[in-house]
Request: fold
Amino acid sequence: MKSIHFEVNLLDDVVLTGHSARTGTGDALGFIPGAALRGLAAERYGEAEPNAWDVFHSGRVVFGDARQLCGSDSPALPMPLSFHAQKGAAPQRVEADGVVNTGLRTAPGPGFKPLRGQLSTTGEVLPLPNTELYARTAINFEDGRADEGQLYFTTALTAGQRFGFAVDIHLPDADGSVEQFVRRAVGGQRSLGRSRGAHHGRVDIQAREQPFAATPTLDRSVDGRVTLLLLSETCLIDEDSGTPT
Reply:
């Protein structure tokens, strides 16, 4: 497997939502989904031939989510839903005293709440990326004024933040043509997300010569069990029957 690591610099505020609804705040995302990055590459679909099928349809070229770069210059991780702490407490690390991991079948007890924020690769608790709420309105083209009842809100990742992601290539690439296409199709100054006509969405994406640091394993194993942190939806398959478990 070949992995290409990229760094994303937000030149403008970027609006990314969990669904395409035009009402409400749009369930704003605190990361750049891999599907959006894959869409950037798909804008240059014709340049991918004769590898277009392998890149976009085989499932063997995976565009990861872009997460905010933390102090160790590695992408942060989503906070596991299993970590809990006492209400009012602000632990700096998930391995601090008072933090309960329900993934290890330990009950948090009364007065506990799930930890919020992000998780660094060294186990630190980090705040969520900076966002800003915008109020917008549609324009009535007949009189050039705000259209009645068309006020809506959007939440954007603010400019100046840095994110990182990787593209994993799970296929033979003897001549390097797939890697070269991915670097060319994703890199450069591009536009992401919604409200691009309202001066949102400009980003600068550059490939890194050095990969991001590997994510260490947190020391939380119990009785030989391994705890997995799922970074995306995961379908577990029974090897004998081939059916989901």
User: Anything to note?
Assistant: The chain has three helices and 14 strands. Residues 177-186 form the longest helix (10 residues). The first strand starts at residue 2 and ends at 10.
